């Protein structure tokens, strides 16, 4: 990094809104720059890099690790699928919050996604929670609208954006095919 | 009832393992998942079994995927992986087999959609022909890379459908084309691009009155050459998408039928304000002509009627003639396109007919807040003038009306006219462009009429940011400020001001510092006391009481605020500089049913704007 980096204003990565069905298909990850502290990203199948996510849904299962270090694994369900979320001692805020949330509850989570290789060779996307909050159903519904809008924006993005091109190359799946997941999610909202 | 069955299954399972479960508790649990939280029953069952299994220290058996049989014909679009299905469809393309174990592969289509299929050599199936319709019974759908395809194996029966049971092809309006369809279209070849590759015979733009689309004719199609300005019907073209742009492909299976002038579908007259991409018939007046800008372009200007205005362009092609300013014309077959969010209308040779009468025209004046890229008429006053940042700028600043404000710029030229502060102007046929997500109106070429004596109350240029509150930073909640006049800095825990040192007679204040995130951009946000009060219901007094009556002191207020706003959707109004937001007025976003309807429509439609 250059010397004036300390003077540059800190820009926080925006938290991407993504449905479970899309996040679980993501497997391409990369690092921007060569520095140890350079951010890592995963590439969403609809063509946007993502270093942080904002997700919501119903917490359906909560597992506490048996070992010495406290570690939680939770499942959070949105209308399209399941998010795998974890929090350990490096996420004290989330750890503290999870301990007092029971399943089932509506939650929103801010966290960093990572791609892991399961023993059978499959890729698993899991989100390391920075914070998790129990909320009303209406917040989850707002999130579904927000995520539907931003997912459609990504699907319809009509540019030479390098992330979009890379995603087309890596995932070999038409962007338009994600439209049905958006429809599914919107249809799940009960007025 | 299904829930009862789940309860039965779960209690039997654990009873068999020697762990009886309290039935009432179990049912209440299932109910809570399924009824209250709308968790699908299968996921609820999984989750509850997991909970009990962990409680009893049992290993979890993993469940296999369930199989479904189907004898009746299923629409192709509804096929899911891991299903046995029967379909009826047309073979729209055959792909040469790359493996001896595959007899045939290609794409099959019905009215609902298309799907790849593979016929295994071992299936000993009859050979299917491109373009013909078949019934395929008991094929297997499976999934690879998120794409479902159909496998024909030895248990599958294939029968050709009788011609009378084959549905008639339907013409798809261009605006309704979605990718990966095999369709029939009817329209005009409005543009032919120069040839680029030996594998492509022709490419260009195809339009009907609903929209425009790129087309490609493969060299392998051996198709007759399409001519610009002619109408055609194309049966069995494939739609495709690349980088969000749709196109149609003419291949060897496509049938091309020229349509003569008299068979051409009638196009209704479209008001200028309602134009959308495609071919249109419009009537209007040439209200402005721009200066010559390039060799390829004969003329540019603005075309208007009572409903609105649009930029037009005439290319320098053989037979092209310029239009006269202030003359009315009927344009038959104007090709409307969208460029940088604004519409533009291309007028081809021989399509413009002068109209004799000069009708009066009432420009359609719109509120600033409704202005988008394109040509607009506004009634505004000069709110603020910016210092010029470039030699080429004559004047720039902010215009406003009751609905909001918009930037403007006037470039230096001999016609440039300077606006006077606080004077109300009627601005006719100015063009609005978008730069970096910000609208800006260019006044060159527009007509500016001052309206002396008129006044306008301009809406304050408050900006609104909607987003999720994703992080609450330290220094939020109840804070202490330095009491020295004109300072007001936030004191440390030890009541230390970085300038005025220890200040025991501090002043309390409420604020929120943190990050508001709209999914694209993250705002370094400060919410002032008024905003915090609106969001949390706290005020200075109650917050102080809370801090004083609690061992955690000021931190209590911090946690209280955190609990109420973290992860919530907020609407914040205030001032934005780059990525900083100072908000004075905030509220929680509520569920917007109108937005739901709008998004449903948007999700339904193709990528055409």
What can you tell me about this protein's structure?
The complex is a heterodimer of chains A (191) and B (609). Chain A is of the alpha+beta class. Chain A is 27% helix and 34% strand. Chain A is built from five helices and nine strands; from the N terminus they run βαββββββαββααα. In chain A, helix 3 packs antiparallel against helix 5. Chain B has 609 residues and is mainly beta. Chain B has six domains: 2-56; 76-165, OB fold (Dihydrolipoamide Acetyltransferase, E2P), CATH 2.40.50; 174-263, Nucleic acid-binding proteins (OB fold (Dihydrolipoamide Acetyltransferase, E2P), Beta Barrel); 275-354, Nucleic acid-binding proteins (OB fold (Dihydrolipoamide Acetyltransferase, E2P), Beta Barrel), CATH 2.40.50.140; 368-461, Nucleic acid-binding proteins (OB fold (Dihydrolipoamide Acetyltransferase, E2P)); 464-588, OB fold (Dihydrolipoamide Acetyltransferase, E2P), CATH 2.40.50. Chain B has helices spanning 2-16, 23-36, 41-56, 529-536, 540-548, 554-565, 593-604, and strands spanning 83-95, 102-110, 113-120, 133-144, 147-152, 157-160, 182-192, 200-208, 211-218, 231-242, 245-250, 255-259, 278-289, 297-305, 308-315, 328-339, 342-346, 352-354, 374-385, 393-401, 404-411, 424-435, 438-442, 447-450, 463-472, 477-481, 496-497, 501-502, 507-517, 522-527, 569-577, 580-588. The longest helix of chain B has 16 residues, at 41-56. Mean pLDDT of chain B is 86; it is low at 62-70. At the A-B interface, strand 1, strand 5, strand 8, strand 9 and helix 3 of A face helix 2, helix 3, strand 25 and helix 7 of B.
């Amino acid at each position: 990094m250059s010397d004036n980096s300390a003077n540059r204003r800190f820009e926080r990565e925006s938290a991407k809104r993504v449905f479970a069905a899309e996040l679980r298909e993501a497997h391409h990850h990369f690092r921007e720059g060569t520095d140890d502290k350079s951010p890592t990203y995963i590439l969403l199948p609809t063509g946007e890099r993502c270093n942080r996510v904002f997700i919501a849904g119903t917490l359906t299962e909560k597992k506490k690790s048996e070992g010495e270090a406290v570690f939680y694994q939770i499942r959070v369900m949105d209308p399209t699928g399941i998010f795998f979320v974890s929090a350990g001692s490096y996420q004290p805020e989330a750890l503290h919050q999870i301990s007092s949330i029971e399943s089932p509850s509506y939650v929103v989570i801010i966290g960093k996604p990572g791609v892991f290789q399961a023993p059978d060779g499959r890729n698993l996307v899991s989100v390391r929670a920075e914070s998790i909050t129990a909320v009303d159903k209406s917040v989850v519904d707002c999130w579904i609208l927000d995520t539907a809008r931003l997912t459609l924006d990504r699907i319809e993005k009509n540019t030479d954006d390098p992330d979009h091109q890379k995603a087309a190359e890596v995932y070999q799946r038409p962007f338009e095919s994600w439209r049905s997941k958006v429809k599914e999610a919107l249809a799940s909202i009960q007025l | 009832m299904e829930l009862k069955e789940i309860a039965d299954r779960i209690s039997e399972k654990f009873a068999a393992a020697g762990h009886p479960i309290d039935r009432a508790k179990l049912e209440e649990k299932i109910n809570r998942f399924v009824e209250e939280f709308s968790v699908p029953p299968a996921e609820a069952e999984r989750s509850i079994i997991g909970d009990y299994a962990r409680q009893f220290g049992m290993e979890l058996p993993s469940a296999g995927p369930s199989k479904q049989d189907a004898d009746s014909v299923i629409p192709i679009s509804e096929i899911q992986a891991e299903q046995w299905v029967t379909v009826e469809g047309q073979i729209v393309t055959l792909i040469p087999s790359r493996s001896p174990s595959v007899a045939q592969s290609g794409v099959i289509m019905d009215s609902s959609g298309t799907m790849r299929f593979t016929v295994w050599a071992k299936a000993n199936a009859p050979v299917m022909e491109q373009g013909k319709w078949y019934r395929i019974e008991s094929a297997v759908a499976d999934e690879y890379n998120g794409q479902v395809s159909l496998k024909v194996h030895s248990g599958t029966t294939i029968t050709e459908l009788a011609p009378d049971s084959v549905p008639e092809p339907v013409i798809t309006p261009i605006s309704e084309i979605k990718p990966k369809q095999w369709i029939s279209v009817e329209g005009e070849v409005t543009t032919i691009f120069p040839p680029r590759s030996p594998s492509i015979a022709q490419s260009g733009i195809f339009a009907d009155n609903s929209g425009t689309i790129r087309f490609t004719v493969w060299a392998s199609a051996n198709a007759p050459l399409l001519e610009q300005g002619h109408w055609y019907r194309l049966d069995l073209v494939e739609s495709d998408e690349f980088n969000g742009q749709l196109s149609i492909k003419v291949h060897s299976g496509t049938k091309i039928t020229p349509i003569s002038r008299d068979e051409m579908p009638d196009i209704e007259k479209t008001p200028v304000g309602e134009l959308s991409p495609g071919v249109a018939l419009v009537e209007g007046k040439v209200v402005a002509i721009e200066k010559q800008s390039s060799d390829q372009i004969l003329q540019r200007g603005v075309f208007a009627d009572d409903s609105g205005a649009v930029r037009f362009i005439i290319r320098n092609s053989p037979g092209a003639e310029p239009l006269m300013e202030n003359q009315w014309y009927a344009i038959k077959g104007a090709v409307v396109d969208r460029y940088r969010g604004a519409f533009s209308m291309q007028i081809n040779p021989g399509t413009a007919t002068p109209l004799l009468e000069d009708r009066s025209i009432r420009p359609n004046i719109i509120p600033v807040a409704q202005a988008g890229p394109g040509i607009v008429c506004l009634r505004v006053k000069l709110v603020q003038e910016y210092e010029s940042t470039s030699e080429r700028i004559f004047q720039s600043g902010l215009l406003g009306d009751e609905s909001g404000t918009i930037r403007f710029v006037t470039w230096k030229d001999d016609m440039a006219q300077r606006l006077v502060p606080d004077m109300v102007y009627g601005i006719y046929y100015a063009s609005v462009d978008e730069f970096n997500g910000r609208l800006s109106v260019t006044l060159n070429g527009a007509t500016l009429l001052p309206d002396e004596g008129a006044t306008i109350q301009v809406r304050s240029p408050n900006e609104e940011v909607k987003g999720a509150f994703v992080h609450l930073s330290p220094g939020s909640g109840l804070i202490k400020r330095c009491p020295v006049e004109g300072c007001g800095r936030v004191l440390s825990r030890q009541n230390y001001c970085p300038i005025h040192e220890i200040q025991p007679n501090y002043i309390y204040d409420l604020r929120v510092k943190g990050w508001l995130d709209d999914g694209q951009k993250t705002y370094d946000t400060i919410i002032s006391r008024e905003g915090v009060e609106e969001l949390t219901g706290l005020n200075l007094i109650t917050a102080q009481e809370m801090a004083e009556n609690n061992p955690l002191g000021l931190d209590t207020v911090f946690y209280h605020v955190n609990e109420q706003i973290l992860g919530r959707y907020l609407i914040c109004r205030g001032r934005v500089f780059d990525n900083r937001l100072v908000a004075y007025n905030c509220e929680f976003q509520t569920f917007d049913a109108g937005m739901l309807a709008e998004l449903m429509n948007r999700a339904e439609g193709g990528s055409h704007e």
